[in-house]
């Protein structure tokens, strides 16, 4: 598919008003996207679990403009308050996608958005937020063109989400997602994410992810700046090669359900991501002492209990604690008795692999 496929054209009738609501989840990468090209395509393939409870719910009210202007017009509300601080990112996004969604120019957009997780939790909301907004826009496109099928709707929603935030494109489908071309994953592409196309062992069904909240402050270095630092990183080329190999390894693990190998691989990816931050120029550190306390506790617990729990990290200090559903009761006690004390205000979010976005 080329990018031209997504240019919408030939709409004749524009309804005066169209309202739509989507709830879209966050996702956590197992094989990390870290490093990108200018057009927000990734330097390597990434694979993620779509989450279930950590979501953004976005309503968009499209009202037809009275007089035609070429400037995109919108307002954003978050938790019932007008949020001018969100404007810049959304403005850039809408202007970038205008080439593919020229119909947006016909409307004033009122974007009303809420997260199911606390704003101050330090959880990145760009994946859930950008995907929810892209889905609302695709609903308008489908209203204007009834011929759009399920497949195109989701593909273009992922394509648009990617332009907003790379990782957001992996939130369009439930389960496991793949973004970025890989020679051993059929249908994979840099332009959008696909649902993982191969068999997955039952052991991964409803896999749990408890997000241990270590730091809820805004990060000192944004993901976008982190990606930039990969452009002249000493280890960049080796990283991209290792990531492509790790995709092959994960493919076998997802099939054979070897949870100990899963733990080793997923933790290697998490630590490599942060090692890349620590060795970039300038270098920076996003993990905190309690991140390390949690990591060490998880490793000890795995050793002693023989339950194949493991952790992963995104670009921050919080820890995603992954474990099989069948061990939930026992692991819950470990979280309460051991891990909770390392969390800010003892807070954590219980989540698991989910089914993907929902139109409400
Ligand atoms: C560490 O998707 O937030 O979470 O494309 O600049 O918006 P932009 O970056 P973003 O990067 C996510 C990086 C990561 C790893 C991952 O989710 O794969």
Specify the helix fraction band: 25-40%
Distance between the termini: 30 Å
- Sheet of most strands: 8 strands, mixed
Q: Please tally the helical runs, counting DSSP H or I stretches of 4 or more residues.
A: 8
| Outline | globular
Q: Point out poorly predicted stretches.
A: none
- SSE pattern, N- to C-terminal: EEEEHEHHEEEHHHHEEHEE
Mean pLDDT: 95
Helix vs. strand class: alpha+beta
Q: Give the strand tally.
A: 12
Cα radius of gyration in angstroms: 20 Å
Bound molecules: ligand DP6
Q: Give the strand content.
A: 15-25%
Q: What do you see in this structure?
A:
The chain is α+β, with helices and mostly antiparallel strands and 360 residues long. The strands form 2 sheets. Strands 1, 2, 3, 4, 5, 6, 7 and 12 form an 8-stranded mixed sheet that branches. It has a 4-stranded antiparallel sheet with strand order 9-10-8-11. A hairpin with a 2-residue loop joins strand 3 and strand 4. The longest helix is centred in the C-terminal third of the chain and has 21 residues. It is globular. The relative contact order is 0.17. The mean pLDDT is 95. Bound molecules: ligand DP6. The site of ligand DP6 has 17 residues, from helix 4.
Summarize this entry quickly:
It contains 8 helices and 12 strands.
Task: Describe the secondary-structure layout.
Elements: E1 17-31, E2 46-64, E3 73-78, E4 81-82, H1 87-97, E5 107-115, H2 126-144, H3 150-164, E6 176-179, E7 193-195, E8 208-212, H4 223-229, H5 236-256, H6 259-278, H7 289-305, E9 310-313, E10 319-323, H8 328-339, E11 348-352, E12 358-359
Parallel strand pairs: 3-5
Antiparallel strand pairs: 1-2, 1-12, 2-5, 2-6, 3-4, 6-7, 8-10, 8-11, 9-10
Helix pairs in contact: 2-3, 5-6
The protein binds ligand DP6.
Ligand DP6 binds at residues 29, 32-34, 40, 46, 124, 126, 165-167, 223-224, 227, 273, 314-315.
